[in-house]
Specification:
Elements lengths: L3 E2 L11 H10 L10 H18 L5 E6 L2 H12 L3 E6 L2 H12 L3 E6 L19 E5 L1 E2 L4 E2 L2 H10 L4 E5 L16 E5 L11 E6 H12 L10 H8 L10 H17 L1 H20 L17 E5 L4 H10 L2 E2 L1 E2 L8 E5 L6 H14 L2
Parallel strand pairs: 1-12, 3-4, 3-5, 5-8, 8-9
Antiparallel strand pairs: 2-10, 6-7, 9-10, 11-14, 13-14
Helix pairs in contact: 1-8, 2-8, 3-4, 9-11
The structure holds pyridoxal-5'-phosphate.
The site of pyridoxal-5'-phosphate has 13 residues, from helix 3.
């Protein structure tokens, strides 16, 4: 049976991807050398599309890494000599914190339970914080952090670099890059692509910091130091042999998204989120976990009352794949994606089946 993947990553492929994969094979894309002119052109048009779709200014460079965890590590290595600060409210934000700690930095955190948001008034970055790390949509708990809160914090501490995880928020989230120094997303969530590629967006200030650390004799990494990524990106190249197929698919899907229009994508996401939240808000048993004001539009988390596996199994038998909770919340939550790859029809079908199975 062909299943509908409402999992929160990897997730349903963007509808045009199967055709693009076929074309890629016909055009021998997986055999393309990453030093060939075809690849340089592909790199150029992919980054152009990403720039247009997400409104990224010329002050920011676009790099490719293999995954988001790599992007986190590169950000810490390249912009933190001593101190980073992290907002932690679930698995992925905690990984960012742990990476800094593992790299022997003095990683500070404001930690709240999974499902909660942050009180930004409690954040004090005046004691030497170099980079502030925050997750826009914490995929493990379905909580979003307000961009306005982040911008206000940046205004208060303009010299602190801000690194933003937008993995499961993209392309829905609208980011004012004049106030954000670094951001990243892997492609298997909101972009609806096969995993194995991440986009890392870095501004001049962050690149300067990396150079400064390097000159001071502090390691900024090796082949994927910011300096090395930049040197190659400026030639429309990658340092290593990259996932050329995924870059090709990203070029195609960002083009498809541009022709659909980002506004329409965002409107549809809002519509589907409303359908999901309205339905589960009124559900007799399985209600949303997160309080309304901080709920993610793109990741809907439900309280499964300890029936996660039973619910997932019954849905699976009907052709719908959903995610369990993450780590210690595995059997407490059901997580449902609301990414652009999923149509309004998909969401309605899911709700209809859920209603039939669990009234
Ligand atoms: C999935 C996810 C990651 C990790 O992505 P990888 O591609 O597996 O490295 C990081 N942050 C968030 C918010 C995620 O949802």
């Amino acid at each position: 049976m062909k299943k509908l993947f409402l999992t929160v990553g990897p997730s349903k492929l963007y509808p045009t991807v199967p055709t693009h994969i076929e074309t890629a094979l016909q055009e021998n894309i997986p055999s393309l050398s990453h030093r060939s002119q075809e690849f340089l052109d592909l790199f150029g048009s992919t980054t152009d599309n990403i720039r247009k779709l997400l409104d990224i200014p010329a002050t920011h460079q676009i790099f490719f890494t293999s995954c988001s965890l790599e992007a986190m590590e590169r950000i810490i290595q390249n912009t933190v000599e001593k101190k980073s600060y992290h907002c932690v409210n679930g698995y992925f934000s905690n990984v960012f914190y742990s990476i800094s700690h593992d790299l022997r930095k003095d990683a500070q955190k404001l930690e709240v339970p999974a499902g909660d948001g942050f009180n930004f008034d409690k954040i004090d970055l005046s004691n030497g914080t170099e980079t502030f790390c925050v997750t826009h949509t914490e995929t493990s708990s379905g909580v979003t952090t307000s961009m306005q809160d982040i911008y206000r914090l940046k205004e208060k501490y303009p010299s602190v670099l801000v690194a933003l995880d937008i993995v499961s928020a993209v392309p829905y989230v609208s980011v004012d890059f004049s106030q954000i120094d670094m951001a990243f997303f892997s492609v298997q969530k909101g972009m609806g692509l096969p995993a194995g590629l991440c986009v890392l967006i870095v501004n001049e200030k962050a690149l300067e910091k990396s150079n400064w650390l390097h000159k001071k004799g502090i390691s900024t990494g090796s082949y994927h130091s910011f300096a090395s990524l930049r040197e190659f990106a400026e030639k429309n190249q990658t340092v290593e042999t990259p996932n050329v197929l995924d870059i090709y698919l990203l070029e195609k899907v960002t083009r498809d998204m541009l022709s659909k229009g980002i506004d329409r994508i965002r409107e549809e996401t809002d519509t589907k989120a409303e359908l999901l939240y309205n339905f589960f808000e009124k559900h007799s048993q399985y209600k949303p976990v997160v309080e309304e004001s901080i709920r993610a539009k793109t990741v809907v988390v439900l309280d499964s009352k300890g029936n996660t596996f039973e619910i997932a199994k019954k849905l699976s038998d009907k052709g719908f794949a959903v995610s369990t909770g993450y780590a210690e919340n595995q059997n407490k939550y059901i997580r449902v994606a609301n990414f652009p790859a999923l149509s309004i029809e998909d969401t309605k079908n899911f709700i209809h089946t859920f209603k039939e199975l669990f009234s």
